[in-house]
């Protein structure tokens, strides 16, 4: 069987996807670096700002179900350009004083930006599944997760280092503007891959010019929830992202106000945590692929074990006295490194048990559960502030326990659901070949 090779155009398309995703995600956590400034300008409490941060994420997560459904029926390139514009134009306007004179106008623009952010995940992962075969999807997903991580850290660092000298609005403009020309280039240049072309049973048929014509229907959403791998992967997303929602939003503020370090040093601690997460996501993706080739269920087993181990340095990171910055930064790095084990691998797990025409919708549902915790995190943290910031941070970390356990449960069903998909795709390939002969 011929090996699928990417053309230069396809490689550039993936590069553009990486760059656009990085810049769009840079907008996600800017607020976490400018909470004191926003509180002073608008005269609102940080609890209120936490609720706004949650609204930004949650609205985007729930609207992603629309983008996910249409990514299984419509050209994904056009949808990608749409979500970039929807996300970045409000982001740019947030940096213009005329449009953010009140907390209400600021909130509206943040929520509109969140809609764009919510749409990009299901579209991007649907496209990736048609660029890469099942044994390479974890590493492919890891590079896109890297874009999300780099973007999130980039936004925080730009805001953290520029706000004191230039004000809190400029970072929104610097982050949003470059993505507009990138989206235009993508619209003019990119081609999306044929749906289903990386499935082993369909590969030769599609290379010969046959078209996989299956499209999702509204009634198919029920099928998504008959797949046990889907169910438990969806469920782990909620407890797995609550810690990220609280820690990433409140971490800089925690070190500034509770530990008494400068905004720049707090931003450095956040950066090290992000670097650990980035390298862990990439490294464990390749380890996951290696384990997958030996036995598919080893991949989710690795994810569960890694998340549970990551709880140890995370507790030390939050609770140890701040008297050795080198050790402290090291704990931040290993926290990010270990708990990121699931980030890319769960996407590959979902790709490998779902039909090509369902993947956008599957990732839209996953985006809801995966962002529900992330979205609720800022608000939960704000509500827990009266109990103390140490309590809030430890509360967040404990959520990784049920996440790790649910990932171990995924391993029980993964191989059977993968084999069922391969059987179905094989049957459809036989039907396509028979129809072509007729």
The CATH homology group name: MFS general substrate transporter like domains
Class derived from helix and strand content: mainly alpha
Helix fraction, binned, reads: over 70%
Total separate domains: 1
The CATH architecture would be: Up-down Bundle
SSE string, helix = H, strand = E?
HHHHHHHHHHHHHHHHHHH
Topology:
Layout: H1 8-25, H2 30-33, H3 35-42, H4 46-71, H5 76-94, H6 103-129, H7 137-166, H8 170-176, H9 179-189, H10 203-207, H11 221-224, H12 228-257, H13 263-294, H14 298-319, H15 325-339, H16 341-351, H17 359-384, H18 389-398, H19 400-437
Explain what you see.
There is one protein chain. This protein is mostly helical and 438 residues long. The radius of gyration is 22 Å and the shape is globular. It has helices at residues 8-25, 30-33, 35-42, 46-71, 76-94, 103-129, 137-166, 170-176, 179-189, 203-207, 221-224, 228-257, 263-294, 298-319, 325-339, 341-351, 359-384, 389-398, 400-437. It has one domain (8-437): MFS general substrate transporter like domains (Growth Hormone, Chain: A). Helices cover 78% and strands 0% of the residues.
Keywords:
single chain, Growth Hormone, Chain: A, globular
Please summarize what this structure is.
The chain is an all-alpha fold.
